[in-house]
Amino acid sequence: MPAVLPDSRILREALIPLKCTREYGANVHPYTVRRWFKSGVHSPINGLRIKLEAVYQGRTLCTSREAFMRFLLAINAEPVKPRRRRTSKSK
Predict the structure, then answer these.
(1) Contact of 75 with 43, CB cutoff 8 Å
(2) N or C: which end of the chain has fewer CB within 10 A?
(3) What is each CA distance from 20 to 11, 35, 65, 84, 87, in whole angstroms?
(4) For 55-82, how does the pLDDT look when each residue is reduced to its tens digit (9 = 90+)?
(5) Cα separation of 52 and 57, whole Å?
(6) Neighbours of 61 (CB within 10 A)
(7) What is the helix (H) or strand (E) element at residue 49, kind and residue range?
(8) What is the phi/psi pair of residue 67, to 5°?
(9) Which helix (H) or strand (E) holds 71?
(10) pTM flag (> 0.85)
(11) CA 28 – CA 6 distance, rounded (Å)
(12) Which residues face 16 on adjacent strands?
């Protein structure tokens, strides 16, 4: 599990316990949300593995509405095309 940096965005947001996500509008089972945090989701659009931001508050794993939004946006984001590097032409 990655460490949360002190300047992390999720620490400045209102936290929601993962077991109560249905009460806050996420119509998924709490275990599904925990799996999104632990192992992430493979995005079918950009091919990346995206993980939900969450932190432990005591013994309770919590996330935020904003973290849910960032998670959903990241899963549905278009792939970024790599920029071509200019190579120097040898004379």
Answers:
(1) yes
(2) C
(3) 18, 15, 12, 46, 54
(4) 898 998 898 888 888 998 888 887 766 5
(5) 16
(6) 18
(7) strand 49-50
(8) -65, -40
(9) helix 65-75
(10) no
(11) 29
(12) 63
**pLDDT tens, residue by residue, 24-39:** 777 888 888 889 999 9
The Cα–Cα gap between 10 and 59 comes to 17
Tokens of 81: 């095309």
Count of other CB atoms within 10 angstroms of residue 52: 22
Q: Name residues whose C-beta falls within 8 Å of residue 82's C-beta, 6 or more positions apart in sequence.
A: none
Give the full edge-to-edge strand order of the sheet including 60-63: 16-17, 60-63, 55-57
**DSSP class per residue in 10-38:** GGGS--EEGGGGGGGT--S-HHHHHHHHH
What are the structure tokens assigned to 8, written together?
A: 């992390």
Q: What is the DSSP letter of 55?
A: E
Please answer whether residues 2 and 38 qualify as being in contact, where contact means their C-beta atoms are separated by less than 8 angstroms: no
Q: Residue 1 carries which DSSP code? A: -
Token pair recorded at residue 53: 């931001």
- What are the extents of the domains in the chain? 20-75
